[in-house]
Amino acid sequence: MPPFIQKYQLGEANSSASTAAITVSLATAFVASFVSGFVADRLGRKRLFYIGAILNVLGCIIEIAGPNLVSFLIGRIVTGLGVGVFSMLVPLCKLKIMTHRTLGSSFCSDTLLSLFIYKIDQSEIARPGNRGQLITLYQMGATLGTTIAYWISYGTYMKQSDDISWVLPIAFQLVPGGLLLLGLHLIPESPRWLIYRNRYDEALEIMALLRSDGRKDDLNLQMEFTGVRQDVGFDKRYTRKSFLALWSTGTENNLTRTLLGMGIHIFTQLSGINAILFYIPHIVEASGVMDRPTAVLIGNGIVGVVNFLGTLPCFWFIDRWDRRRILVIGALAMALSMIVVAILSSIYDNTMASSSLHRYIGTVFTPMSGDNKAPMYTILVFLCVFIAFFALSWGPVGWIYPAEIYPQIIRGNAMGVTTSASYFFNLVVTLVAPFMFMGMLWGTYLFFGCICLIMAWVVHRYYPETRVRTAKPKKE
């Protein structure tokens, strides 16, 4: 937004500052997600949620109130830490609500990555038969929060010409962040963590609220509680807990588990999904068939809606189909979409047109252009197809699969490591993508298409199925 760029003197004349404003949040989220697993095992899930919520609110205030670029970057660092904490915790734990089976709802968001949390019972509390649906709520919340942020940004971009155009989208984060902070006292601790800490009575009481309307003498509840207690006891006795245990082989085979979990997140980023979502307004404007306001509307608002709506059908099939089947089908469909985009771009990319939107890392965004509107609109359609199939497959399953493959004793640490891998490669792709679009042109889409084909083959060849397993996976 021009007022934002003018205030902080961003742009070609200060490309390093532009790069820092974009990437610093991803970098700090990487650090936070990496260490959050170790902290969560010691402090507990709920206490770490408090820390994340406070960081989110504090960072937003600093971004808004700060007088210069340095203060804004400090705010981005603080909010990035909060987002990293949430990204690890939400799929790992649960947020439960107390009207019958539920207690309330809240969401917290970052300007680019929004974490909407609504009625979430995650891997440590969900039953195997519906764990996929419940963790999918995390992805649905992220896409919904992102869509809301897109439309708020679009509205202020079109209607405001002063500082309110960028202050309002950032200030809006205080609403969900504040609600989360205020509502955390209604959210109990993870029962599995309590059992791990030998706090059995508290764990049984929480499980009773979730499973049997508070009746602790319910037979099914007692059987489940006993099973979880035995699982946790076995892990405490026979599984190493240190960071090095994540890379151990032998009977535990944690090295394979860690590589599988990291691989899911690395492939998710290398598929190009965030590069497309991040730069699609530039792609649309550089196509030469739309002006800047329309490019922003299509690139952010409409595509955000596609991403959100694509997540909704997952609730029907996510716990009916095998995880591997969903991942393979999704990767193949994404690959086909990217290959079609690459072919059309290579044929009709005859006259280069530059995007007049924000320029990153001192480059001019020139991915595609042409005078024939039909191929350009076809390209946009297949980009939306790519995003929709990601939302149907790798979006939710990318969070479900890692939560299902680790034993309780290392799950917190392992989820922190795998989530940090996602942020690291997100950062890498964000930095490299402009140069790829500049240097490779349509070859960028072909590259992402080939990566998606590799993803499908690797999952089919090396990834075991995890659907309908207990929260503690079977020994291999």
TrEMBL record:
Annotated Gene Ontology MF terms?
carbohydrate:proton symporter activity
Domain Major facilitator superfamily (MFS) profile: where?
Answer: 1-467
GO CC, sorted alphabetically, is: membrane
- Membrane-spanning parts: 20-40, 47-66, 72-93, 134-152, 164-187, 259-280, 295-318, 325-348, 376-401, 413-436, 442-463
What family classification does the UniProt entry report for this protein? Belongs to the major facilitator superfamily. Sugar transporter (TC 2.A.1.1) family.
- Which top-level group of life is the source organism from? Eukaryota
Organism listed in the record:
Absidia repens
**Which protein is depicted?**
And other transporter-domain-containing protein
